Amino acid sequence: MKQIKVRAPLLAGIALSLLTLTPGAFAAPQAEEPIEIPIKGGLYMHETADGTPILVSGDGRFVMPGRFVDRENDMNMITSLDEARQAFGESPSVVAPSERLSPGAQMLKDVNPSEMLSFTTGDQDGTKEEVIVWIDPFCPYCHRVMEMQSSLTDNYVFHNVVIPLLGPNSQRFVDVLACVERSEMGQAILNKNTSVQPTSRCRSTEQTAAQRYATSAGIQSVPMTVSASGRVQTGAFRSLEQFQSFLEAK
């Protein structure tokens, strides 16, 4: 799943639509008092595999399908990542579509979880598919995905890569997690145990590697799950059945 961040100064001028919007619909402000949406971690534009644009909050809580209007840019409708790049000052990719790997396939090719701050759910016996999940320790939707994993370990091994996306508290927690045993990381995250007993050795190199890759890959929304086939899901799954269907799809 490709993504681009919608810059904060433009958020006040963006009108979202779950159906079909027309620029004229936003020529005048609404009389009703608006409701502030508690968005954490920024707002990002993604493109699904079929090219549908969606907006996702950085903590994975809000997913807003549809198109949106940039009121500071002559009410232009933004309907794709390339249009967003042009509107927000980024250059479209010059790589031919036939030469591109999907973001998920590229991530599977580039990421070695053992070299990053991560913990594993499930044991590999040589037959199970490997799944990468990007999480922030304070993201409740990440916790939901983590809790589902234990029910799927007959066929899958989950590598949970830990990165701080949700502010200073997340950064401090990740600093703590870098100094505990891998086997204790998952439970410490679920319990929000920031006082877990540290080991004598901190994995600062792994912590840096995970954060550097997340930055270079533009990962700004969690949880982000990458299946063995390279499919990407941003946000929590509604049910265990939906999670399993996602993993089984090719």
Write up what this structure looks like.
The protein is of the alpha+beta class. It folds into 2 domains: 2-23 and 36-87, no CATH class; 103-248, 3-Layer(aba) Sandwich (Glutaredoxin), CATH 3.40.30.10. It is built from 8 helices and 12 strands. The strands form 3 sheets. It has a 5-stranded mixed β-sheet with strand order 8-10-9-11-12, with helices on both faces. Strands 1-3-4-5 form a 4-stranded antiparallel β-sheet. Strand 6 (68-70) and strand 7 (76-78) form a beta hairpin.
Structure characteristics:
250 residues; Glutaredoxin; 5-stranded mixed sheet; 28% helix; 20% strand
Quick overview:
This protein is α+β, with helices and mostly antiparallel strands. It has helices spanning 8-11, 81-87, 103-110, 140-149, 168-177, 182-190, 204-217, 240-248; strands at residues 2-6, 14-16, 43-47, 53-57, 63-65, 68-70, 76-78, 118-121, 129-135, 156-162, 224-226, 232-234. The strands form three sheets. It has a five-stranded mixed sheet with strand order 8-10-9-11-12, sandwiched between helices. Strands 1-3-4-5 form a four-stranded antiparallel sheet.
